[in-house]
């Protein structure tokens, strides 16, 4: 698997439970995602940026078949995921959740080695790789024997990332992975994610509603409106300098002129772009826009 993801006009209607309908819910309410199409290039970080309920998680979970589209297709390297065994597919794709998603009754080392072991990797090889990943993610090896509740929020998120990387997937799905940690640790984790991506060249699909995080990480950003409709797609500098409309401008906070010039100056300075119309920056240039 090399890791290109293609969303081909995917739509998702969640069923409205009968009880909710009886209580007045609108059964004809719009879909969670409506005819979304986008190709996510292999080896890049693409951020789905949108407010709560815009369909980000729904889109992400279509990639590993945790959500099935009502219509449309998701293809990985040209192959429709609908034809793949969901369990095998999920084990081949890294997935990092907001709370780390660690198994509470398993030690850190067992959490990280879980998927490689299920895939048939020997205990010794899996443990060796797990320790390597802990090192890469700046986790003290002594933590390997601890249980998740004995970790700080930042450590648990790092373990979550290590676990997602353990089976060496080409694709990493990251769903608001740093939402629950404090701003300082969050920025450290963002910088580490950017570094990892440069070193390992994974295709990362990253969900957030945090504009600064999107600018810090995304080679490309897809700004979503309600119903998973694309408001704008582009690099951070492109979106900052040429917001498509008033919705994008407001969502990014560009109607606040002080914030707008801070964001633009930081992105230009750190990308070395020099002018608003300069071409897209190198991926590392996006590591910059800090609050
Ligand atoms: N299992 C479900 N059953 C019914 N409706 C759902 C389900 N999951 C999501 N939805 C609805 O679909 C819409 C999109 O939800 P989704 O979780 O994809 O949005 P999101 O952008 O990830 O939001 P958040 O940032 O709050 O996580 C919302 O209106 C939500 O209520």
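-> sequence recovered:
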């Amino acid at each position: 698997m090399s890791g290109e993801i293609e969303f081909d006009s995917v739509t998702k209607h969640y069923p409205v439970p009968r009880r909710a309908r009886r209580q007045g819910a609108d059964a004809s309410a719009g879909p969670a995602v409506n005819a979304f199409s986008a190709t996510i290039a292999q080896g890049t970080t693409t951020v789905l940026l949108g407010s709560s309920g815009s369909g980000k998680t729904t889109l992400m979970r279509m990639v590993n078949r945790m959500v099935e589209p009502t219509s449309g297709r998701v293809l990985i390297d040209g192959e429709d995921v609908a034809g793949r065994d969901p369990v095998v597919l999920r084990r081949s794709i890294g997935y990092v959740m907001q709370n780390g998603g660690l198994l509470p009754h398993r030690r850190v080392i067992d959490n990280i080695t879980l998927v490689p072991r299920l895939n048939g990797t020997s205990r010794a090889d899996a443990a060796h790789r797990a320790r390597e990943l802990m090192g890469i993610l700046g986790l003290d090896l002594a933590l390997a024997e601890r249980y998740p509740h004995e970790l700080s929020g930042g450590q648990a998120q790092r373990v979550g990332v290590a676990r997602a990387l353990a089976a060496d997937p080409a694709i990493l799905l990251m769903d608001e992975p740093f939402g629950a940690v404090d701003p300082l640790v969050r920025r450290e984790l963002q910088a580490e994610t950017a570094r990892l991506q440069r070193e390992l060249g994974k295709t990362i699909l990253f969900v957030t509603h945090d504009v600064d995080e999107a600018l810090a990480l995304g080679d490309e950003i897809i700004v979503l409106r309600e119903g998973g409709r694309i408001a704008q797609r582009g690099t951070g500098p492109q979106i900052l300098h040429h917001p498509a409309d008033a919705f994008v401008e407001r969502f990014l906070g560009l109607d606040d002129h002080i914030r707008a010039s801070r964001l633009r100056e930081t992105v230009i300075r750190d990308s070395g772009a020099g002018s608003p119309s300069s071409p897209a920056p190198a991926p590392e240039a996006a590591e910059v826009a800090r609050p």
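The mean pLDDT is 87.
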